[in-house]
Design a protein that fits this description.
Layout: H1 5-15, H2 22-42, H3 49-52, H4 54-72, H5 82-95, H6 116-134, H7 138-161, H8 174-186, H9 203-208, H10 218-221, E1 224-232, H11 236-243, H12 249-252, E2 256-260, E3 271-278, E4 281-293, E5 297-304, E6 308-319, E7 322-333, H13 336-374
Antiparallel strand pairs: 1-7, 2-3, 3-4, 4-5, 5-6, 6-7
Helix pairs in contact: 2-6, 2-7, 4-7, 6-7, 11-13
Keywords: Membrane, Transmembrane, Transmembrane helix
Organism: Zestomonas carbonaria
Protein name: Fatty acid hydroxylase domain-containing protein
C-alpha cells in the first residue's frame, strides 16, 4: 500500500500543540548552543599546535557517533532509544519521502529539528566530559567539548537546509546541494536503513561502505535559475488562483502567446499546451502540473523544442500589504549549441522578460481581484 504523505502531514500537524512556536524552538537551540560554545572557548589559553589537533580528531569522532546513533537508534527499534526511533523513523521518515522533501510551513520545523530539551541534555554530558578532561589539560577539555557541541549544531543547521525548497538560494550552495541529494536518497524506503546516515559530511558512510550516490538528472545539473518577486494587493488564495490559471498567462507574460487547456487554476495532474516566444526564439511547451496548494504554492514542469526542459514554481506569502508573490523559473537545454546561445544571449533576455512579466502581473491581477471582490 502506497504511503500517503499529505494525509500523514495533516495528522501530524493537527497533533502539534497550539502553543508550539517554531521560531522560539530554533532560536533557543542556536542561542543556548552559542552560549555553551562561548563558555568552552573562553577557557582556552595559549593553545599549542598539538592541542589544536583535538579539533579535527573530535570532528572525526563526532562523525562516527552521528553515524552510529542515526543508524543504530534512529532506524532500529531498541528499548533505550524508543522515543528517538518513533520521532525519526515513525515521524520524520513518514513526513518526508524522496521526491517530497521540502517543508511547507514554519511549524513543520518540529519534525525536522531535535526537541529543544535535547541540546540541554547533550550539553550536560559535554560539561561532565569537559570537567573530567580539564583535570588533565584545560585546553584539550575545552576544544573537545566545544567541537562536539559544534557538531551537534551543524547537524541541526545542515539537516534543516536539506529540507528547504529546491529554489531556496541556500539549497543551491555546492556542498549543501550534494548533502541534500544524499539525504534525499536516504529517505527512500529501500535505502533508509542501510545507506547515507551522515548529515554534514559523509566520512563514516564512506569508510563503512554505506555511501550511496545517484547522479542528478542532466537537466538538474545544468539548470539556469531565475527568481523574481513582487507585492500584489490581494489575498494569497486570490493571487495564486489567478497566476496558476495558465489560460490567463498571455494577459501578463510577454513570452506567452497562446495557451490551450482547461480554465481556472490547474491542480496536480493537470495538462496544457503553450506557444511561446522567449529569449528571441519561438517554441512550443507541453506542461504538466506537479503541485497546487491554494494560497501557498503551484509547481509545474514542461518539455519543449530544442531539447528544452523547464520547471516553474509560484509561491505566495501573506504580507501587511497583501501577498508576496515569488516566481522561480528553472530551465535547461540538452545540447551544447542551445546552451551556448543561452549563455551568450538568451539568458539575459529571458531574465528581462521574467522581470517585466511580474510588473504586468501585479497590475492585471489587482484589477482582476478588484472586479472579483466587487462582483
Amino acid at each position: 500500500m502506497a504511503h500517503d504523505v499529505q494525509a500523514f502531514r495533516s495528522r501530524y500537524r493537527a497533533a502539534i500543540p497550539p502553543r508550539y512556536n517554531p521560531w522560539l524552538h530554533a532560536s533557543f537551540v542556536l542561542a543556548y548552543g552559542a552560549l555553551c560554545l562561548a563558555f568552552f572557548w573562553s577557557r582556552l589559553e595559549q593553545v599549542s599546535l598539538l592541542e589544536w589537533l583535538v579539533v579535527p580528531l573530535t570532528l572525526v569522532f563526532y562523525n562516527w557517533g552521528e553515524y552510529n546513533v542515526h543508524k543504530g537508534l534512529g532506524h532500529h527499534k531498541r528499548r533505550l532509544g524508543a522515543l528517538f526511533y518513533k520521532r525519526h523513523t515513525g515521524d520524520h521518515h513518514s513526513f518526508f519521502i524522496a521526491g517530497q522533501m521540502r517543508y511547507e510551513t514554519d511549524r513543520d520545523w518540529r519534525v525536522i529539528l531535535f526537541p529543544a530539551w535535547l541540546i540541554v541534555l547533550y550539553s550536560l554530558g559535554l560539561f561532565a566530559a569537559w570537567w573530567l578532561l580539564a583535570q588533565l589539560d584545560a585546553n584539550v577539555a575545552a576544544l573537545f567539548a566545544g567541537t562536539m557541541l559544534l557538531g551537534y549544531m551543524s547537524y541541526e543547521v545542515f539537516h534543516a537546509c536539506e529540507h528547504l525548497p529546491d529554489s531556496h538560494p541556500v539549497a543551491r550552495l555546492p556542498w549543501i546541494r550534494q548533502m541534500r541529494r544524499l539525504h534525499e536518497l536516504h529517505h527512500r524506503r529501500e535505502l533508509m536503513q542501510t545507506h547515507n546516515f551522515n548529515i554534514v559530511f559523509p566520512l563514516t558512510d564512506w569508510l563503512r561502505g554505506t555511501l550511496y550516490w545517484e547522479p542528478l538528472e542532466k537537466e538538474e545539473r545544468t539548470m539556469t535559475v531565475m527568481r523574481h518577486e513582487t507585492e500584489i494587493a490581494g489575498s494569497p488564495e486570490q493571487v495564486l488562483a489567478y497566476a496558476a490559471t495558465p489560460t490567463r498567462w498571455p494577459e501578463w507574460h510577454p513570452s506567452s502567446l497562446r495557451v490551450k487547456g482547461p480554465g481556472g487554476p490547474l491542480p496536480a495532474g493537470g495538462h496544457f499546451e503553450e506557444d511561446i516566444h522567449a529569449g528571441g526564439r519561438a517554441g512550443h511547451l507541453s506542461w504538466d502540473v506537479d503541485e497546487y496548494l491554494p494560497g501557498q504554492r503551484w509547481r509545474a514542469h514542461a518539455n519543449g523544442d530544442h531539447g528544452l526542459s523547464l520547471k516553474l514554481t509560484y509561491e505566495c506569502q501573506a504580507t501587511a500589504a497583501g501577498t508576496r508573490f515569488v516566481r522561480t523559473l528553472e530551465y535547461a537545454f540538452d545540447n551544447w549549441p542551445m546552451r551556448l546561445a543561452n549563455l551568450l544571449v538568451m539568458r539575459k533576455r529571458i531574465d528581462h522578460e521574467s522581470e517585466e512579466s511580474l510588473r504586468i502581473l501585479r497590475d492585471v491581477a489587482e484589477r482582476a481581484i478588484t472586479r472579483e471582490d466587487a462582483a
